[in-house]
């Protein structure tokens, strides 16, 4: 079982946005987490870059001074071939580099719907009121929230959004499918913090929802983002 807090504490400042307060979570070594994802969830995993102390500061192991995702991106171009669903192989990979980030390829056992955290919290509240079935959900240090759904979402989300009356490119809603990846808890990204579970993997959410089931509240919440941003600035 993944050891995390059970809920996100939410406070509503205005009708335009939810402000999420993600609690600190008790993590476990990266190696143990990677093995659990492969063994218990049957997710493919692969090790990414890691953080190193350089001149009193944390830098990405890739060596790029202006790395966009320090400590949380692939180490090689053929990362898709490196991904494994074997717990034995995962243990071997992280034993070689225990500090390596945990990256999960999308488009295989799951896709991910990626939205701003304010929209994600608003959508999450609506989904729970609607009693929708949810899969795991992560929060990232750059204030994004990712909802895990069945594979194939990346292909059909634009049309689903269009049917709801939105222009797909007008919403900050990204469907990550084949050819993409996401960072998994407890991966740390630079000095910004760690990826955390907003809704952790459990036996209850082993069967993922289809994007069709979640797209309406997500699109609605993302559509409120411009108004929420204006409210925060005023």
Task: Supply database-style keywords.
22% strand; 234 residues; three-stranded antiparallel sheet; alpha+beta; five-stranded antiparallel sheet; 7 helices
Explain what this protein looks like in three dimensions.
The strands form four sheets. A five-stranded antiparallel beta sheet has the order 10-7-9-8-12. Strands 3-6-11 form a three-stranded antiparallel beta sheet. The chain contains seven helices and twelve strands. The N and C termini lie far apart (44 Å). Helix 1 packs antiparallel against helix 3 (87-96) and helix 4 (117-129) packs across helix 6 (211-223). 30% of the residues lie in helices and 22% in strands. 44% of the residues are buried. A hairpin with a 2-residue loop joins strand 1 and strand 2 (17-21). Mean pLDDT is 86; it is low at 1-26 and 227-234. The chain is α+β, with helices and mostly antiparallel strands. It has helices at 30-40, 79-82, 87-96, 117-129, 153-163, 211-223, 225-233; strands at 9-14, 17-21, 46-47, 51-54, 57-60, 102-105, 111-116, 137-140, 144-149, 174-176, 181-183, 196-199.
Task: Compile the SSE list and pairings.
Blueprint: E1 9-14, E2 17-21, H1 30-40, E3 46-47, E4 51-54, E5 57-60, H2 79-82, H3 87-96, E6 102-105, E7 111-116, H4 117-129, E8 137-140, E9 144-149, H5 153-163, E10 174-176, E11 181-183, E12 196-199, H6 211-223, H7 225-233
Antiparallel strand pairs: 1-2, 3-6, 4-5, 6-11, 7-9, 7-10, 8-9, 8-12
Helix pairs in contact: 1-3, 4-6, 5-6
């Amino acid at each position: 079982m993944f050891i995390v807090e059970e809920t996100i504490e939410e406070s509503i400042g205005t009708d335009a946005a939810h402000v999420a307060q993600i609690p600190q979570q008790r993590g476990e070594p990266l190696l143990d987490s990677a093995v659990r994802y492969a063994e218990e969830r049957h997710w493919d995993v692969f090790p990414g870059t890691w953080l190193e102390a350089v001149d009193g500061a944390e830098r990405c192991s890739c060596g790029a001074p202006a790395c966009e995702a320090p400590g949380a991106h692939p180490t090689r171009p053929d990362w898709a071939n490196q991904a494994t669903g074997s717990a034995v192989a995962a243990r071997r990979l992280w034993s070689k580099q225990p500090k390596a980030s945990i990256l999960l390829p999308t488009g295989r056992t799951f896709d991910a719907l990626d939205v701003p955290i304010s929209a994600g919290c608003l959508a999450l509240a609506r989904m729970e009121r609607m009693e929708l079935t949810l899969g795991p959900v992560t929060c990232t240090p750059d204030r994004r929230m990712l909802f895990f759904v069945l594979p194939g979402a990346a292909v059909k989300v634009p049309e689903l959004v269009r049917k709801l009356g939105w222009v797909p490119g007008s919403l900050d809603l990204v469907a990550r499918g084949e050819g993409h990846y996401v960072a998994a808890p407890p991966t740390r990204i630079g000095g910004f913090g760690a990826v955390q579970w907003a809704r952790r993997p459990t036996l209850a959410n082993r069967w993922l929802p289809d994007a069709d089931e979640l797209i309406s509240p997500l699109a609605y919440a993302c559509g409120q983002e411009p108004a929420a941003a204006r409210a925060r600035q005023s």
